[in-house]
Amino acid sequence: MIGRFIRVLEGSPRIVISIFHPAIGGEPVKGIDLYAPCQAEAAKLLTEMGVALDNLNIASVTTNGALAPKTEGFPVVLLSPGFGVERDMYLGVISKLVSKNYVVITISAPHESVFTVFPDGSYLKQAPEMAELASSDYTSWRRLLHNRVQSIHAVMDHLKMLTRSDTGLAGLFDLDKIAVMGHSLGGAATLEAAKQDHRIKAAVLLDPSFHLIRREDVQSSVPVLLLRQEASAYREMAASMNETIAYDYIDGQRYAFNALNNAHFYQVKGAQHMSFSDIPLHYNDHHAVPVHTVTAEAATAFMEAVFCKGEAGRNFALRPGETVVPINAEGEPVGT
Question: What is the pLDDT of residue 12?
Answer without folding.
Answer: 77
